[in-house]
Every structure is written in C-alpha cells, then in structure tokens.
Design a protein that fits this description.
heterodimer; A: about 200 residues; alpha/beta; Oxidized Rhodanese, domain 1; two-stranded antiparallel ribbon; B: about 210 residues; 6 helices; 11 strands; about 30% helix
C-alpha cells in the first residue's frame, strides 16, 4: 500500500519534472511591461520541436556576413538570454532591435523597439532625435551622454554585424561603453534555446 | 600527366579557402588542425541553402535539466565565442599551448565533435584522482610542498552541448576546486549547438 503510494508520488513528480521546459530551474516564464504593454516570455513546450525557419540556415554569404567576435569592445558587456530577460524585468533601459524594419516586422523579441542600425551611422536629424529620445543632449556639436538611458542591442545572430556596427558608431560620438550592452546571440540564439518570439499578428511562434 | 595532377593538387591546396563564399571572419576562411592524428580543415559549410537539422536543431529542452545558462559562469572565467575558439585552435592548440575540451559524455564525443577537441567527460568531476592525473597531462606540476605549480599549465577551452548545457560548468568548477588557475580556463558557452548552427566543420566517427 505504502509502496503504491510512493510509486504514485514518484510518477507525479516525474511528470512535473519532464513536462516543463523552464527558463531556469525556478523560472517558467518572465512577464514585464514596456511602454505600457505587457509581454510574457517563455520556452517552447513539448518534446520534439525543431527550428526549421530561415534562422536554421547555417551559412550566410561573406561579405557582408561574418561570425562576430564575442565582444564588441572591452567595456561593452555581452549578454546572453538570461541577462536579456533580467534587463527587461528590471526595466534597466531600452531593448533595441537594430535590424532593418522589414526584419523587425517579420519577427522580433518581446519588449524590443526597432531602431535600425543605419540611423546611428551618420550625422542626421533622425539620429539626433533618436539620441535625444534616449536622454542625450546636444550642445552645438558636442554630445552630453551623462543622462542617457542604457541600451541593449541585438540583431539576427552571431553572424550579424548590424548591432556591433551601431555600437561602434555610437562609441565614436562618445556614447559611454558602460551604457551599451550587446546580445550577440540575437534572434537566432533566442530561438535555438526555445524562447518565444513575437510575430506581427501578436501571436508568438 | 603526373606533373599536371601534382600542379592541380598543389594549386587547389594553395588556393583553398581563399575563394570561400562563407567565411569565418573577414580575414579567416579556414584553419588546419589535427584530430586524432589526422589533418582536418575547419571552415564553414559553403552551401548557403544548408539548414541545421538533427538533434541540434531541436529547441524544446526540459528544464530543470537543460536550463538556459548565464553568459558567465563566474569565478573569473572568461566566456568566449566561435571566433575566439577558432583563433585558440589556430594559435594555441596547434602550437601545443592549449587544449580544446569537449566536456560531454564519451559516446557523444565519439559520435561528432569539434576538430582538435579532446574529451574530458564532466562525469569525472567528483573523481579527484582522475582530475589530478589530467592536471599533470595539462602541464601542472607538483611543488615539493605538494601544492600545484601552474606556471606551465596549458590554456583550456571547455564546451558542451549548447547554451542550455551545464556540463562545462560542472567540469570547470571541479578544475577550480582542485587548483587549476581560473585565468587559464575559458568557457565556450555557445557549445556544440552554436558551432553547428554556424555551419562550422565537425568530425564524425561512424
């Protein structure tokens, strides 16, 4: 009798352990809000889900695609998925999808805003407006970044140079390295570890 | 005829990688390494339509067990990516100054791994005797007072299945516990899954 009860208990436990694809042992999902909109991030459930979309492509032509170094610069921290989630949950700054808008509209990571990397590359009114929205101030030709928000940038994957290019361009005009973070894995690694992405209809895939 | 073949072979060899369509970095298309005594070229799959398939395209992983790992495992261990692993193999492993370590179980290593990697399964982590003999192979020597002298210890890069795999950390923690210097250990977090997702060369045994 006791044995039977133990067996039932064991089976129940096994069920709970195997049925969940959590993010970390004690976190099954992350909920946060950005600009008043609420988002939930979780890992894909089930046993046999495979990546089959264009992010399962292994070989992108060079140029322009090369595997990116782990770091953009010594003081620009590289983030992984858990650090991205923490950044969003603790509202530590602006999560920037640095890809072109057409990519962003196809699919993106929950909580990101689209600022295409090209905006940061040249001295244009559009760049100035973007930087001012992030909290920078301009005096004549010189920028003051003392009150600028921290930004976390990502693009398509470890083979994508768009977010590193944006970071380097910002470094040149004095954006503090400590206030920039780089999610190198990008939307490809995000999906490879089974995290959900936003698609235009709002449905996650 | 023989001469012609020789010339063609030589030309192919000399130009290998130069015209690669899919490169590793701007300057680097390939690295030649030895894997179990055989020469292997590490480069990338050149077919731009190639998709990652098989078990490493799998994205549903149960956690607890296969939980997403932090970017850093702490304790002063530096995390690196593919570019740094390739450079490590080229500059350190090829010159006997470093060792690339696959921390996965023996059968997985035997099936398919990164060229030039050796296998130190994470399962030895509780076996101090095994770790000590591995330390000696890695260049650690024992001082007269029986403490470790790590001045000649090789640099070690450790990887396992992917960013959701904890085995590298288990092995690195054991190395640190037994006295291997943190500044000589590097963690390739992306692991075998990210290596394959970028179409980098693997070696398979049938």
């Amino acid at each position: 009798m006791r044995l039977k009860r133990l067996a039932v208990l064991f089976l129940t436990l096994t069920f709970f352990v195997t049925a969940e694809n959590n993010i970390t042992p004690d976190k099954s999902s992350a909920t946060f809000s950005v600009n008043g909109k609420s988002y939930t991030i979780e890992r894909v459930q089930g046993d046999n889900v495979y990546l089959t979309n264009e992010f399962s492509l292994t070989s992108r032509p060079s140029p322009p695609f090369f595997i990116q170094p782990f770091k953009v610069s010594d003081n620009v921290e590289t983030y992984g998925e858990l650090e991205v989630i923490d950044f969003l949950e603790k509202e530590r700054g602006v999560f920037v999808d640095a890809r072109l808008t057409s990519w962003f509209q196809k699919s993106n990571i929950a909580g990101s805003v689209n600022i295409p990397f090209k905006i940061f590359l040249s001295d244009t009114p559009q760049r100035d407006k973007t930087l001012k929205d992030l909290g920078a101030t301009k005096n004549g030709d010189s920028w003051n970044f003392s009150k600028v928000k921290t930004i976390l940038l990502y693009c398509n994957g470890a083979w994508c140079g768009q977010s590193p290019t944006a970071i380097k361009a910002l470094m040149k005009i004095g954006f503090p390295e400590e206030k920039m973070k780089y999610y190198r894995g990008g939307i490809q690694s995000w999906q490879l570890v089974g995290l959900t992405v936003n698609t235009p209809n709002g449905a996650s895939k | 005829m023989k001469l012609l073949i020789t010339i063609i072979c030589l030309a192919t060899f000399l130009s290998a990688g130069k015209y690669d369509k899919v490169k590793i970095t701007e300057e680097l298309s390939q690295v030649l390494v030895y894997h179990k005594g055989k020469a292997v070229k590490i480069h990338r799959i050149q077919d731009v339509k190639n998709h990652l398939t098989g078990s490493y395209a799998k994205i549903s992983r149960p956690c607890p067990d296969k939980c997403i790992q932090p970017i850093s495992i702490g304790n002063g261990i530096e995390t690196i990516g593919e570019v740094e692993v390739v450079e490590f193999v080229k500059n350190q492993v090829n010159h006997h100054k470093g060792v690339l370590v696959d921390a996965r179980p023996k059968n997985m290593y035997a099936q398919e791994t990164i060229p030039a990697a050796i296998n130190i399964p994470f399962t030895i982590s509780n076996n101090n005797v095994a770790i000590k003999s591995i330390f000696e192979i890695l260049g650690m020597t024992i001082n007269p007072d029986s403490s470790w002298d790590s001045s000649k210890a090789l640099d070690v890069v450790v990887y396992c299945n992917g960013p959701w795999c904890e085995k590298s950390k288990t092995l690195i923690d054991a190395f640190l516990r037994e006295g291997y210097p943190a500044k000589k250990i590097f963690y390739y977090r992306g692991g075998f899954q990210m290596w394959k997702s970028l179409g980098l060369t693997t070696v398979k045994t049938k």
